[in-house]
Amino acid sequence: MKDDKRITQKDVDEAAVRLKPLFGLSPGRYLAIGYALALICILFALLVLPGIRRDGAYYSFKLDPSDAAVYIDGAYRVSGSAPTFISRGSHTLELKREGFTDSSLNLEVEGRLVGSLFFPRRESLTLRLKSPSPLAILQAGMRDYSAWSMAGAPSEAYQHPMILSDAARAWSGAASAAEKDALPTGFAGAALSYASNAAALRDALRASSIALSGSAALTPFSLGRLVGALAEELSAEPALLGALLPYLPAEAKKALEASSLYQSYRTTFGTLARAPLPSGLLSAAGHEFIMLPAGLSSIGGAQIRLKAFGLARAETTVAQFKAFIAAEPSWAQAEAAKLAARGLSDKNHLSGMASDGDDMPVRYVSRAAALAYCEWLTAKAPAGYRFTLPSEAQWSYAAAAGAAREGVFLGQGRNGPEGVSSLAPDAAGFKGLLGNVWEWCSDSYAFFPAAGAQSRANWPSAEGVVRGGSWANQPGSVDLGSRGPMRPDTASAFLGFRVALVPIGE
Questions:
Q1: 161-217, pLDDT tens digit by residue?
Q2: pTM for this model (two decimals)
Q3: Fewer Cβ close by (within 10 Å): the C or N end of the chain?
Q4: Is pLDDT larger for residue 301 or for residue 142?
Q5: With bands split at pLDDT 50, 70 and 90, how would you rate the model's confidence at 268?
């Protein structure tokens, strides 16, 4: 076998690559063309292709209110000033926020074909919403804020949004000077009473600063308005101090406890209120009322001063509510769907009344239905009085007078409440305050019910409050101090009401 020829350095030096012509083109020409085509492809990929694949513009929005939501062709895109990409062509842009009138416009979007990867087309739009009722913005914000407070303390899973502060800023920008001056009283008091944690309290204080000063910017003038408004609310409802205290830093808490204002509050309201003694019995409009004198009601660890009032001896019965329906058929069970559509009840409205006897407490009634009954009944009220639902403080005051220890609870095969005439009276003469059915109060549910009690009438929350327990509760699981939140449109088998007799103006 012949040995392979060894390759020497000379062979390497003399080696050469010779390209052959291609399609009649010399190597020099077709290499130049190839390089040019490669460069064109690279430039096309960098300068033109991005503009073809993503043809449009980035839009930044300057919004008033700043947290309004932007929708493009019906789809949510952004809230606030963050830029968003919109493709070339005709689009419908909508701007929405609760409490404001929706706005829409046709948007013609241009693109940039060349260089969009490095220099995308950018546009800016300034959009403003108008509010038919700036006050509705704050009221909706208070409802949402109270609902978030019900969720409890923030955690790693979620944080409490500054939802009331956002509403206050939106209101401040939309309201006129006259509307700001006419802001209903009690904003700070209601917000503080709904706070369930430190994050909610911060939101309440920040929102109060904006709403009560009339400006999102804290100036010497607005600060003066804020201090004056807070002093007025504290004077009217000193229990607000008790709502603030648990969340203050140690030094601030110590300073507040040492203040003359807090000492005055403790002297007046810090002692345990005595149980009232009934002052008489009054029959009116088919109900018997146990009259109670003016005094202090203990609720939520504090006291509220009450004027004299009367509370029905028993819960409103099926027979009494039937008389109301005969006079006001719009509240009949057949109208449940219409009432639910208006947010006045749910689909269960009066669904159990047909099977309940006339002496049974009426059930499946929403708070609105109970208040409608009271309003209808007021035409038969004694001169100078009206009928309504009791406030939580009034209900608690009556419960203290009766001090019931026995009630109608789950057991012995029971599958519903007892007729009111069969119930034994408590020490004050009331029947069924403990057990039988939960009873609607007129208030919104608050974590500090004594704080902001008057304020919540102007600034209701998303939840009403019920008291007393029902036949579906286990014995010992509830007492006269038990309370709970309930959506005002709820109509359930465990829920009824009794009527209060109060002076007109209360």
A1: 899 999 999 998 888 889 888 888 889 889 989 998 888 988 988 898 888 876 666
A2: 0.79
A3: N
A4: 142
A5: low
**Angstrom distance (rounded) from CA 271 to CA 257:** 16
* CB contact at 8 A, 400 and 273: yes
Q: Give the pLDDT mean for 421-437.
A: 96
Contact 239, 265 (CB under 8 A): yes
High-pLDDT (> 70) share of the chain, %: 95
Between the CA of residue 237 and those of 178, 187, 415, what are the distances in Å?
25, 12, 43
The answer to whether the CB of 388 falls within 8 A of the CB of 457 is no
Reading the block at residue 325, the tokens are: 């329906």
Backbone angles phi, psi at 380, to 5 degrees: -105, 10
- pLDDT value at 411 more than 60: yes
Q: What CATH architecture is 280-503?
A: Alpha-Beta Complex (3.90)
> Which residue, chain included where needed, has tokens 């911060």?
202
Q: What is the spatial distance between Cα 188 and Cα 212, in angstroms, rounded to a whole number?
A: 8
Scanning 15-162, the segments in alpha helix (DSSP H) are 27-43, 49-53, 134-149
| Digit-coded pLDDT (tens) for 45-62 | 999 998 899 999 999 999
Mean pLDDT across 272-282: 87
Are 213 and 225 in contact, with CB atoms under 8 Å apart?
Answer: yes
Rg (CA), the chain: 35
**What DSSP designation does 337 have?**
H
State the burial class of residue 54 (Cβ atoms within 10 Å of its Cβ: 0-12, 13-18, 19+): middle
CB atoms closer than 10 angstroms to residue 308: 15
Contact 306, 316 (CB under 8 A): no
Question: How many other CB atoms are found less than 10 A from the CB of residue 486?
Answer: 20
187-194 and 220-236 are packed helices; what angle lies between their axes, rounded to 10 degrees?
A: 70
**Cα 140 → chain centroid:** 7
Query: In the beta sheet, which residues pair with residue 89?
Result: 109
Exposed/middle/buried for residue 291 (C-beta within 10 Å: 0-12, 13-18, 19+) = middle
The alpha carbon of 450 is separated from its chain's Cα centroid by a whole number of angstroms, namely: 20
For residue range 230-243, what is the model confidence (pLDDT) as tens digits? 777 777 777 777 77
Q: Are strands 56-64 and 122-128 parallel, antiparallel or unpaired?
A: parallel
Classify domain 54-128 at the CATH superfamily level. Carboxypeptidase-like, regulatory domain (2.60.40.1120)
- Asked if residues 224 and 176 have their Cβ atoms less than 8 Å apart, the reply is no
Beta bridge partners of 105: 93
CB atoms within 10 A of CB 55: 17
Place of tokens 């519903």: 416
Residue 387: strand pairing partners: 501
